[in-house]
Amino acid sequence: MAFPFDPFRIGPHQISNGLVMAPLHEITDQPFRKFIREIGGPGLVVSEMISSEALIRHARKAEQMMATTGEHPFAMQLNGGNPQSLAEGARLCEAAGADMVDLNMGCPASNVTKGGAGSALLRDLRLAESCVSAMVKAVNVPVTVKMRAGWDASQKERGEFLDFLKMFDAVGVKSLAIHPRTRAQGYDGHADWAIIARAVEAGTSYPIIGNGDVVEPVDAFRMKEETGCAAVMIGRGALYNPFIFRQILEPELAVTATMRIDATLRFFGILLELLEPREALHKIKKIGGWFTKGIPGGNHFRQNLHACNDAQVLIDILEDLRAQQAA
Ligand SMILES: Cc1cc2nc3c(=O)[nH]c(=O)nc-3n(C[C@H](O)[C@H](O)[C@H](O)COP(=O)(O)O)c2cc1C
């Protein structure tokens, strides 16, 4: 059988394998992307969503989200519901070095949907068309989309996502990632991979990237086989196990507790390199605990992690944890 994660294309870009790190708000920032690329595996990495409205106001936080140090290929994701703002936001992303600009049509958070952005665009095909089309006209890099299966169960059952797929073809979208939960589901229930299979069967001119509930390497193989998608996008599974992409590519790779502790130390090192110490500590508290789930002494480490306010103390705690594994 051919290896299922072969390279695929998004517009002019050859993506080295069919594995994509999902955009995760407040997680897939510059330090996390550097970390996950260093660990290895994903052919494509996407920024966290960046508000187009905040970008055109030159809000500092939004501008910082565009920071990149020559990572390629790299997609920046925008959220917004206004075609002019999205066009301007896309231009800013292109100027900041994005190889492609993605439109978020999936975020379920009410502070995003109440402004007509994220998954709210799934309720208005014409507005969604104006938004994507304005972005396509504004930039030379490919425009891509990430969407949910619909706003709610009834919209999903009517198969309205297929109308969106046709519209994306007509306006020149270059890839589509589908997280097949509805907005109403939030993160409950399961991702309905049959929707991804239906999207693939629809025969779009652009590749379909499947997403949702890939937690173990075996799930990625199963998603490929059950849906025929061009690539698999992984979000939360890569937080539990940042080695998941490599394990898919190198099935014999055994991930030890020591490797996970070293990865946590390396992630903290990158945070300290790129952020102020206070921010680095805040981030490691938010994300670092995920990497040590299930390892001996991991619970105790996470309690210490949350109480710790000194970078060197945290490094010492991690080194002790590593020494315990060897003992
Ligand atoms: C903490 C968190 C933040 C997320 N942020 C974004 C985001 O900024 N943009 C986006 O398109 N999706 C976002 N998502 C959705 C994920 O990209 C992905 O579609 C979803 O988690 C399902 O994939 P998974 O089961 O592999 O995690 C987020 C999900 C989580 C859990």
Brief summary:
This protein has two domains: 8-249, TIM Barrel; 257-326. Helix content is 48%, strand content 16%.
Number of strands: 10
The percent range for helix content is 40-55%
**Hetero ligands:** flavin mononucleotide
Number of helices: 16
Shape: globular
Q: For the record, what CATH class of the largest domain applies? A: Alpha Beta
Residue windows where pLDDT falls under 50 for at least 5 positions: none
Strand order of the largest sheet: 3-4-5-6-7-8-9-10
The tally of structural domains comes to: 2
Write down the secondary-structure element order: EEEHEHHEHEHHEHHEHEHEHHHHHH
User: How far from one another are the termini?
Assistant: 42 Å
What is the CA-based Rg, rounded? 20 Å
How confident is the prediction overall: mean pLDDT?
A: 95
The profile of the biggest β sheet is: 8 strands, parallel, barrel
CATH topology of the largest domain: TIM Barrel
Which structural class matches the secondary elements? alpha/beta
CATH level-two architecture of the largest domain = Alpha-Beta Barrel
Going by CATH, the homologous superfamily of the largest domain would be Aldolase class I
Strand content: 15-25%
Describe the structure.
By secondary structure, the chain is of the alpha/beta class. The chain has two domains: 8-249, Alpha-Beta Barrel (TIM Barrel), CATH 3.20.20; 257-326. The protein has helices at 30-39, 52-56, 60-65, 83-95, 110-113, 125-138, 153-157, 161-171, 193-201, 217-227, 236-240, 244-249, 257-274, 277-291, 298-307, 311-326, and strands at 8-10, 13-15, 19-21, 44-51, 74-79, 100-105, 143-150, 176-182, 208-211, 231-234. The chain has an eight-stranded parallel β-barrel, surrounded by six helices. Helix 1 (30-39) links the parallel strand 3 and strand 4 (44-51). The longest helix is centred in the last third of the chain and has 18 residues, at 257-274. The radius of gyration is 20 Å and the shape is globular. The mean pLDDT is 95. Bound molecules: flavin mononucleotide. Flavin mononucleotide (FMN) is lined by residues 22-25, 27, 48-49, 77, 104, 106-107, 146, 179, 211-214, 234-237.
